[in-house]
Amino acid sequence: EYSYDQTAYLLTEQRLLQPTSKLRSFANRSGSIIDHAKVDHLKDLYKVLDLLQEDKATIVRHLNKEIQKKTKRKVTAAFYDVSTYSFESRCVSDYKDFGISKDHKVNEVQVVLGLVMDENGIPIDYELFNGNTNEFGTMVPLIEKIKKTYHLKQLIVVADRGLNSCQNLFDLKDIGCDFVIAQKFKTTSEHLKEQILDQENWQQFVYNDDGAETCRYKTLDVTQEQHEMRESPTTHRNYKTSNVLGTMDLKWVVSHSPSRAAKDKADRDRAIEKAKKAVADPSRLKNSGYKSLVKVPKGKGSPTINWEKINEQAKWDGYYVICTNLNISPHDATAIYRKLWQIEDCFRVSKTYLEARPCFVWTDPHIYGHFLSCFISLVIEKYMLYTLKNELGKEEITHEKMLEALRTAGVVYDDINPQVPFYMRLYEVGLFDRMSALFNLEVLNRVESPSALRRKLHLPLTKVVATPT
Predict the structure, then answer these.
(1) What gap in Å lies between CA 332 and CA 343, rounded to an integer?
(2) Higher-confidence residue: 224 or 302?
């Protein structure tokens, strides 16, 4: 009784051009150059959200099929991370719940979203979880689903240290995946700490054109043990027993960068200054960013700066460790891991430019459909940016520039003379024209007839637009 595809398209279009609520998206449809006449009821947008939930697997497979054709994608590495999306609400449901918010929205319910992208920074798939879900358990099921769905024989999983757990590493091995994952190292065994800090066993050095050292590498052979886990009958928390279920040979790629050391020191110096102010005014001690640098006596007495802890932290300035089961050079392992920043960029784009949060839908099916609609828009946006960067070479093309070009490209209909109606172009020559040519559209002149406009923009419809789009 309504157009499923056109309504879903409206949601995607508005997410890219004018991200807002479903109510405002429905109101904005009249300003679009696409004919949305069949979308004539607001409730249709919410009906489509329900259907999107049901069709998620089919839609995502289709997206990946098209991206594979357009980019010649060969998925050899899957980059995974997790983020949280908040609601301006405190009502809990199957998806919405209170949890550890990455956006520090502690008083709002949220959902947890796990995202997988390819080496080009284009998303492959995602999964939505309850807002109180521990991120450790989100990665392997989604990676396994992707591996089976797309028949991937070899896959390197790349993730941040927040997802590096013994169970995850062994589970990835069990499903036939290799991995390059950041490693926590400041709390490891004393033996490994000594090897990391040993200044005599660096194996590889990188210098810039001026002969200054930019990075150094070493590789440590580490045996990972998997211990049996049991649940405490009193606390109901899992604890590790002494029973070893299996072992795995790993390599820790240790790097040290002078520039990273300078940044670590600068960050710590700022925290120390804040800690000093907190010691003078204990009411400021609530901030966790520098609270750990202050000693607070249990009984009487005043808080003091914890210089012992500060000196311990200083020893690790500039160090970073990556864990892998691959037999590759430190440089290659680091090169793979460095692409992980693009998944943070995916979350930044979805939250900041596509405004996927705060979420203004409340039922669980609508929530699921909302995030699929946002995912479709994100895939299109990232694909467009990838294509632009490849074609325009060294010219700096950013999300901001591309979306501004899309959002400010408008025409207005002039029917003063009914015998010769025309469209007036409202934007200057620039990036949008180059995008039009790249994506097989024709560049518009300052004035265009309705028929020429439809032909150049590949519009089969005959709608007359009386407002800018």
Answers:
(1) 19
(2) 224
List, in sequence order, every beta strand (DSSP E) within 118-195.
Answer: 123-130, 156-159, 178-182
% of the chain with per-residue pLDDT over 90:
64
Asked if residue 467 lies in contact with residue 438, where contact means CB atoms within 8 angstroms, the answer is no
Say whether both 122 and 9 belong to one domain.
yes
User: Cβ atoms within 10 A of the Cβ of 236, count?
Assistant: 7
79-91 average pLDDT score: 91
The sign of the dihedral angle between the CA atoms of 281, 282, 283, 289 is positive
Compute how many other C-beta atoms are within 10 angstroms of the C-beta atom of residue 310: 16
Separation CA 59–CA 437 (nearest Å): 27
| Backbone angles phi and psi of 413, in degrees to 5 | -85, 130
Q: Residue 80 in contact with residue 143, Cβ under 8 Å?
A: yes
Q: What sign does the dihedral 326-332-338-342 (CA atoms) show?
A: negative
H or E stretch including 86?
Answer: strand 77-86
Tell me, what's the pLDDT at 104? 79
Range of the domain at 446: 409-456
Residue at a domain's end among 298, 314, 330: 314
pLDDT of residue 469: 45
Strand 156-159 with 319-324, pairing: unpaired
72 domain-assigned: yes
> What integer is the mean pLDDT of 452-465?
75
Domains in the chain, number? 3
Q: Evaluate if pTM is beyond 0.85.
A: yes
- Shared domain for 344 and 427, answered yes or no, is no
Q: Tokens 């991120």 correspond to what residue?
A: 135
Residues 422 and 352 in one domain: no
Side chain identity at residue 301, one-letter code: G
225 occurs within a structural domain: no
Amino acid at 370: H
> Does residue 70 sit in the same domain as residue 125?
yes
Does one domain contain both 272 and 344?
Answer: no
Residues 119, 265, single domain; the answer is no
